[in-house]
Design brief:
Helix content is about 30%, strand content about 30%. It has four helices and 14 strands.
């Protein structure tokens, strides 16, 4: 392909480089700007091969404990099912010095994951967290989870009304950030987290991120133009037969 580009006239080479840059930006820019919900942490894993039920009888509470919290955890995601309409539930996310609550009214979706906004986020890293799901209704339901040895979260224990459930099954729990954001909007947070683990001049981090978005199409354009000019110069000095 490089040889083909070098044989193009300068104007055609410029047009090709500009088009390639526009295509690049057309693919990358939407991905960077697209709104999405970001995961804060995954205390327990999504079922990989088989879904296991973690029963929650009427009036009972199932808790998963022993995981860490990120500062921006503000939405809890769970999944449940029942033979009829799902009952109302109350969620409590707690850790030393922190407590947040959320709830679902009766009739929430059975099967797919459901997101529950919490009353607050930790604002800092915390260990020893616990998420409890209390059945406030009169009928039982099941939290969906997994018991595959490879998928179980190490150190996480599951109890029902304060006692071990008697199985290895863990309910599927995901903690998310509040609202939607974009990858480009997360650039500042990425630089802050990198800076927290290994101090680096912030300006340098921002320049590196900018180079990824802008530098690639510019580098492509320059490379095509240089190849075209080099080929034109070679043609000028090449002896004609």
């Amino acid at each position: 392909m490089r040889d083909a580009l070098r044989r193009l006239p300068p104007l055609a080479a410029t047009a090709t480089a500009v088009l390639a840059a526009l295509v690049f930006l057309g693919i990358v820019a939407p991905t960077l700007l697209q709104g999405r919900s970001f995961v804060s942490s995954t205390p327990t894993s999504e079922p990989r091969t088989a879904v296991v039920d973690v029963p929650v009888p009427a009036g009972s509470e199932v808790c998963a404990a022993g995981f860490g919290l990120s500062p921006d955890a503000a939405v809890a995601q769970i999944a449940g099912r029942a033979e009829g309409p799902l009952p109302p539930v109350a969620l409590t996310l707690s850790a030393p010095g922190f407590r947040a609550t959320g709830s679902l009214e009766a009739g929430w979706a059975s099967g797919p994951p459901v997101r529950v906004p919490l009353s607050r986020s930790p604002g800092r890293e915390l260990d020893g967290a616990r998420l409890c799901v209390r059945n406030r209704g009169r009928v039982a339901f099941d939290l969906l989870g997994a018991d595959e040895p490879r998928g179980l979260a190490p150190g996480v224990t599951v109890t029902r009304d304060g006692r071990p459930t008697g199985t290895a099954a863990q309910p599927w729990i995901v903690l998310r950030e509040r609202g939607d954001g974009s990858l480009l909007g997360k650039a500042g947070e990425v630089s802050r987290r990198i800076d927290a683990t290994r101090p680096t001049p912030r300006l340098l981090l921002h320049l590196l991120l900018l180079a990824v978005v802008v530098g690639a199409p510019i580098a492509l354009t320059v490379a095509v133009l240089r190849a075209s000019r080099a080929d034109a110069a070679a043609d000028a000095v090449r002896p004609r037969l």
